[in-house]
Structures are given as C-alpha cells and as structure tokens.
Amino acid sequence: MAKKQEAVVDIRHYDVVLKPHITEKTTLLSEHNAIVFQVAGSATKPEIKAAVEALWGVTVKGVNTIVSKGKTKRWKGEAYKRSDVKKAIVTLAEGQSIDVTEGVR
C-alpha cells in the first residue's frame, strides 16, 4: 500500500504562522474553505503555504496576504502607534478544513 507522504514539520514553520485571526468576518470565510492567520511580517506566500501544509496536514490551494498598518492612537494624552500586522488568507482544497480551536500536531 502506498502511504500518503506527509510534509516534514520544521521548527521554522512555527515562526511563520503565529496564530489564527478569529473575527466575525473571518468565520464567514470558513464557508468558502478559507482560514485567516496572523503571520510573520517577513513571511512569503510559499513559506506560508509550506508551513500550513506541514503543521495541519492539509492541501493549500491559494494564499493571499494583507498588511494592516498600525494606527496612531492616544492614551492619557500620549501618542503611541500600534504594530503593523500581516495576515494571510489561506484557501484550502475542497473537502478539507482546519479546526483552529484545537492545537497543532
């Protein structure tokens, strides 16, 4: 019997995908086989794809990235700037899913 070859989990994959980004809008994307993750600012689309495939054992169909620039805010009269956040919308192959409420393997 031929065994499905799994991607090797590299320690660097954990540095690429930081955490799932869970909002109302991102939960609506799950109907279209898409998951949104917060990723490292220097992560590229191929790195994100390889990390998600290795960590969760799924097939990634596409990756789109967004960089949300940090806003300038004020607190007690003092100005500060929120950090920039890079998000990746990962589209999975048909019939596959990731449960972000449980841990990675």
Task: Explain how this protein is built.
With 105 residues, this protein is an alpha+beta fold. The chain has one domain (11-92): 2-Layer Sandwich (Alpha-Beta Plaits). 21% of the residues lie in helices and 33% in strands. It is built from 3 helices and 6 strands. The strands form 2 sheets. The protein has a 4-stranded antiparallel β-sheet. Strand 4 (72-75) and strand 5 (78-81) form a beta hairpin. The longest helix is centred in the middle third of the chain and has 12 residues, at 45-56. The two termini are 24 Å apart. GO terms for molecular function: rRNA binding; structural constituent of ribosome. It comes from Sphingomonas crocodyli. Part of the 50S ribosomal subunit. Contacts protein L29, and trigger factor when it is bound to the ribosome. Keywords: Ribonucleoprotein, Ribosomal protein, RNA-binding, rRNA-binding. Belongs to the universal ribosomal protein uL23 family.
Keywords:
105 residues, alpha+beta, Alpha-Beta Plaits, four-stranded antiparallel sheet, two-stranded antiparallel sheet, 3 helices, 33% strand
CATH fold field value = Alpha-Beta Plaits
CATH H-level homologous superfamily name: RRM (RNA recognition motif) domain
Low-confidence stretches: none
* CATH architecture group name: 2-Layer Sandwich
**Secondary-structure class:** alpha+beta
Order of helices and strands: HEHEHEEEE
Separation of the first and last Cα atoms: 24 Å
Cα shape: globular
Mean pLDDT: 88
How much helical structure, as a percent, in the residues?
Answer: 10-25%
* Backbone CA Rg: 16 Å
Give the strand order of the largest sheet, numbering strands 1, 2, ... along the chain.
Answer: 1-2-6-3
CATH class: Alpha Beta
Strand content: 25-35%
The tally of domains stands at 1
